[in-house]
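Researcher: I'd like a structural prediction for the single chain below. Treat it as a standalone chain; there are no partners to consider.
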Amino acid sequence: MIGTPAHEFRALVLNCYWRNMFETLNDKFEKIVRSIRGKAVISESDLDSTLREIRIALLEADVALVVVKDFINTVKENILGKEVLKSIKPDQMIIKLVQDELVNILGAENQPIKISTSQMTKILFCGLQGSGKTTSVAKLANHLVKSSKKKVLLSSADIYRPAAQEQLKILAEQVQVNFFNHNFNSTNQIVSETLEHAKKNLIDVVILDTAGRQVVDETLMNELIEIEKFFKPQETLLVADALTGQDAANVAKSFSEAVNITGSILTRIDGDSRGGAALSIKSITNSPIKFIGVGEKIDNFESFHPERIAQRILGMGDIVSLVEKAAENIDQDEMETLAKKMSKGNFDLDDFAKQLKQMGKMGGVSGILSMLPGVSKAQKLMAENKISDKLINHQIAIINSMTKKERADPNLIKASRKIRISKGSGTRVQDVNKLLKQFLQSQKMMKRMKSMGKGGIPSDLMQKLQGNLPPKIN
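Model: Treating it as a single chain, here is the predicted structure.
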């Protein structure tokens, strides 16, 4: 439930960092939505113009041409077939139909990994070299251990790449799961011995990594076909690099024609501002995107929720993901206490420092903003101010350089104290002033958080965001 004080607090967390993988689409779709929103009557020429803009937006986002054609045709058929143009609120109906079709091509709903309760689950990984396949193996293992408490074994059938085994072994140790160490040169022998080892050690889930190539080739596919036949996986996951756009869709097509792809993992989403791969790959493989990699760290791994992604593309925000992310990374009791203090106006600089640290755990400023509705202007403002984890750390250093009394009562901090604090934190007096100003603005803003549970951001919050951004420190 979002309306509780702790959830209201989480929903308004602003000082975090996360890149928006659909930045290009989001900007264009927000303009398209604004162009028709509020219109009492929409003509067929208006509709053609809107669909043309949507087509251009999708193509510029590097969505596969066949997917764009199907998308436009389906939306147009639904609009005309349901006589939307003659309805009382045609603008809202068109936006809803566009959203529904976005959800459809993204995969309708999240499809979790199928974990057997009665027998060993076998998961096969495939993809091109450099797509982040081996790292994704470890990320999935970490996710399964945390979410299902299953006993996981990792094994590598890559007999070509130097140090492939060593890399997976190091990652297995990092996420604290079992690893099958071998020196076999036959993939069939690797599969056979891996399964035998798993049975002897009562393993619940076996994840098998395979060799990748720089490009799709016949040798790679033939080997993968043989491994799939011998391994008989319940899940075969394709790992694709989101940055490759339409190439990711072409790679997905090649792999899905060779083996039974049951799901995909998109990597390097944090660096992809277009989102074309995400909008193409499900349609191409006819299997769902199950996870996305949003960074290099092991924990930068999230379930893929099509409906939430569609809402982000259309600028509607994603409060559900925001709350879930907060629940995973933030101490509930500490946040409940902090939320109560903030609602009463008893929020001091010690609490502010805790807030900054907790925000860091959630991934960063733009990540939270990408999940809030209608804050694209704030995201652009953040980019202009070059907001980063380094700046957040500077702020924490400034607070740590204050005495206990100063943190409890910022009004004590006058000129001489500011000089001392700036020297102690390696910053400037101007930076201390900016932090204090930001803190005071945060105090005022947090008193108004209850409006978040009643239909959105306060009307003047966007105007205040600029003053609430962390100070730029050179």
